Amino acid sequence: MGASAGNEEKVVSDWLRDALESVHRKQPELWQWGVGERARVGQIFRALYETDPFLGGWDIDLEWNREGAHGGPKRQPENSSGYGTPDIAVHHRGKKGTEHNLLIVEFKNVHSHGRTNYRDRRKVRWWMEEFSYRFGAVIALGPSLQRFRPAGTWLTLDEHGKPIERPWH
User: Fold this and answer.
1) Which of 37, 41, 61, 141 places its Cα 20 to 30 Å from the Cα of 149?
2) Which domain holds residue 83?
3) For residue 10, what pLDDT is reported?
4) CB-based contacts of 131, cutoff 8 Å, min separation 6
5) What distance in Å separates the CA atoms of residue 49 and residue 57, rounded to the nearest whole number?
6) Neighbours of 124 (CB within 10 A)
7) Positive or negative CA dihedral for 131, 157, 135, 80?
8) How many angstroms separate the CA atoms of 99 and 89, rounded?
9) What is the SS3 assignment for 49?
10) What 8-state DSSP symbol labels residue 144?
């Protein structure tokens, strides 16, 4: 991509925000009718795929649970209930390292304007540390029917490969 790390983060964050806002604007019934998380996430995935600023340079996958060149199951630590598959992964399939793992996203349907919970953030942190995703997001899909304001947590890797969290709006 050739962009600076800060610029790349802005491009990725804006891409995700724009996809969320587009789905909310074009398909308000997904919020008005209180549909399930998968229905919303499927449409967000579609919006990401259709507006990929990297022009097809990344694979964008739903509930991805494979790793390595032969697509074996992703290993999870013992007693890791809640680490399951992420809702959306943006990566190069079968490749390892930060140059091949761009974004990991976990969504939660919430029925009030709440912040994302610790368990969801821990899950994304684990995926980032274990598989070297550069960016992560945990997003609460609240019931907003008017102007859409995505709320959640944005994560980036520090110089030691550890995720740093901050609020994302």
Assistant:
1) 61
2) 5-168
3) 93
4) 67, 74, 96, 101, 104
5) 11
6) 27
7) positive
8) 14
9) helix
10) -
CA distance 90 to 6: 18
Taken in order 23, 90, 62, 120, is the CA torsion positive or negative? negative
Structure tokens at 100: 């091949």
Contact 123, 152 (CB under 8 A): no
Q: In order along the chain (169 residues), what is the average pLDDT of each group of 10 residues?
A: 70 93 90 85 92 84 66 55 77 89 90 63 90 92 67 87 87
Work out how many domains the chain is built from and give that number: 1
In which residue are the tokens 């600076």 written? 4
Number of Cβ within a 10 Å radius of residue 20: 23
Which pTM does this prediction carry? 0.82
pLDDT of 134 reads 95
Residue 116 structure tokens: 């994302």
CA distance linking residue 84 with residue 64, whole number of Å: 9
CB 87 within 8 A of CB 106: yes
